[in-house]
Amino acid sequence: MPAVTVSDILVLPRIAPPAPDAAARPVDQITDSQRTLEGAGFPVRRPFPTPRASQVDPFLLLDHMVAAYEPQEAKGAPWHPHRGFETVTYLMDGTFVHHDSNGGGGVINDGDTQWMTAGSGILHDELPSEELVMKGGYFSGIQLWVNLPKAAKWAKPRYQDIKGPNLTLLSSSDGGSLVRLIAGDLGEHSGPGITHTPITLAHASLSPGAQLTLPWNPGYSAMAFAIEGDGAAGLERRPMKESQLATFGPGGSVTISAADKQHGRTGQFEVLLLGGLPLNEPVARYGPFVMNTRAEIVQAVEDFQAGRMGTIPATHLGGE
């Protein structure tokens, strides 16, 4: 997992412990991921939405894209539309190539993040690199769908290309964990992602036996997804393993812990931490469209069919 790292974690700025009066968030539930196929048939592990875990406001979907591809096996998501939300793609292993009808896009490599605001509507594709298709290899990445508030659903589409070295790299207060802050705030530190909906998104690597306690905005939801390895959630140390999601209750701090022995590729407990300000707005969704009313969904389908969400650039009609 070549996600951006450092040779000496102790040289990084440290995240100050939560305030003494910050209540620890209890664990509400731990759920397993559902394994399914997306796009042209690439495998994902989906902690939500599933029959046991619905969307967690302001988030709509979380997929862990992970596979060990043989040559000619790698697949992506050919041209398709979106409206009304943002897609965040964070890669840890492998390469994706992205194009969109707004002129955005580029190559997403190990440690990079692509942040696409669909807003009023956009067409895009996400494909594995030619080298990955030809040679095969290990691929691991996260895609998160973030809902947009009603006032921003008609915003102009926007694309952010956040290279791995531009993430905010931090150390836990005791030096036992590396935290890559992608967006939002942890204490006095901020990530580079620009968001319409206030959220916090980070990837933490915990050394075996380490415990990580972070200050967390009391007004935000809070979750931890185990990308790889074994550990526990909360001060109550609820066991969690690879591909499980911990959802936390109210409070001002979040705690996760790594098991003493790790058996994953990195030898650490790899965790995605995420939460955001609930929008508390009605959600109407149909496939790649997320709006507030059924009438808006019908309009989205009609607009897409009429070509009002953009056109595929001529140079990419073949998906290249």
Automatic annotation (TrEMBL):
<dbReference type="InterPro" id="IPR011051">
    <property type="entry name" value="RmlC_Cupin_sf"/>
</dbReference>
<feature type="binding site">
    <location>
        <position position="80"/>
    </location>
    <ligand>
        <name>Fe cation</name>
    </ligand>
</feature>
<feature type="domain" description="Pirin N-terminal">
    <location>
        <begin position="42"/>
        <end position="146"/>
    </location>
</feature>
<keyword id="KW-0408">Iron</keyword>
<feature type="binding site">
    <location>
        <position position="82"/>
    </location>
    <ligand>
        <name>Fe cation</name>
    </ligand>
</feature>
<feature type="binding site">
    <location>
        <position position="124"/>
    </location>
    <ligand>
        <name>Fe cation</name>
    </ligand>
</feature>
<dbReference type="GO" id="GO:0046872">
    <property type="term" value="F:metal ion binding"/>
</dbReference>
<dbReference type="InterPro" id="IPR008778">
    <property type="entry name" value="Pirin_C_dom"/>
</dbReference>
<dbReference type="Pfam" id="PF02678">
    <property type="entry name" value="Pirin"/>
</dbReference>
<dbReference type="InterPro" id="IPR012093">
    <property type="entry name" value="Pirin"/>
</dbReference>
<keyword id="KW-0479">Metal-binding</keyword>
<dbReference type="Pfam" id="PF05726">
    <property type="entry name" value="Pirin_C"/>
</dbReference>
<dbReference type="InterPro" id="IPR014710">
    <property type="entry name" value="RmlC-like_jellyroll"/>
</dbReference>
<dbReference type="InterPro" id="IPR003829">
    <property type="entry name" value="Pirin_N_dom"/>
</dbReference>
<feature type="domain" description="Pirin C-terminal">
    <location>
        <begin position="202"/>
        <end position="310"/>
    </location>
</feature>
<feature type="binding site">
    <location>
        <position position="126"/>
    </location>
    <ligand>
        <name>Fe cation</name>
    </ligand>
</feature>
<comment type="similarity">
    <text>Belongs to the pirin family.</text>
</comment>
<protein>
    <recommendedName>
        <fullName>Pirin</fullName>
    </recommendedName>
</protein>
